[in-house]
Amino acid sequence: MDNLPRDELEKIRAVLARLPEAVASSRFAEKLRAKSVATGVPLYQQDPDNPEMIVRIYPDGRRERGSFVGTEFVAEERFQETDS
C-alpha cells in the first residue's frame, strides 16, 4: 500500500470523506461500536478537523490522531474529542 499511485490515494480519501455520512445512522454506528468492544479491535474514521488525518478509536473510547504509513497506523498525538 505504501507504493499506491496518487490517484488511488485520492480515491481512498474520497471514500473516507463519505464514511461519516454512512455512519450517521445511529443503529449502524452502535453496531460498529459493539463489534469493536466485543472483538477489541479499534475503529478508524477521517478526522473531522483535518481530512488528511485519521482517528483511531479504541474500544474503551480513547482516541489517537494519525495516519497510515504503508499498512501501519502511526499516531501523531493523543486527543480527546468532546461532544458539542
Brief sketch in words of this structure:
With 84 residues, the chain is α+β, with helices and mostly antiparallel strands. Helices cover 37% and strands 27% of the residues. It has two helices and four strands.
Describe this structure in words.
This protein is α+β, with helices and mostly antiparallel strands. Helix content is 37%, strand content 27%. It contains 2 helices and 4 strands, in the order H-H-E-E-E-E. The protein has helices at residues 6-22, 26-39; strands at 43-46, 54-57, 63-69, 72-79. A 4-stranded antiparallel sheet has the order 1-2-3-4. A hairpin with a 2-residue loop joins strand 3 (63-69) and strand 4 (72-79). The longest helix has 17 residues, at 6-22. The chain is globular. The termini are far apart. Mean pLDDT is 79; it is low at 80-84.
Across the major sheet, the strand order is: 1-2-3-4
Helical stretch tally: 2
Major sheet size, sense and barrel closure: 4 strands, antiparallel
State the end-to-end distance.
36 Å
Secondary-structure class:
alpha+beta
Report the C-alpha radius of gyration, rounded. Answer: 13 Å
Residue runs with pLDDT of under 50 for 5 or more positions: 80-84
The dominant shape is globular
Question: Would you tell me the overall average pLDDT?
Answer: 79
| Beta-strand residue percentage | 25-35%
List the secondary-structure elements in sequence, H or E. HHEEEE
Summary keywords:
single chain, 84 residues, alpha+beta, 2 helices, globular, disordered C terminus
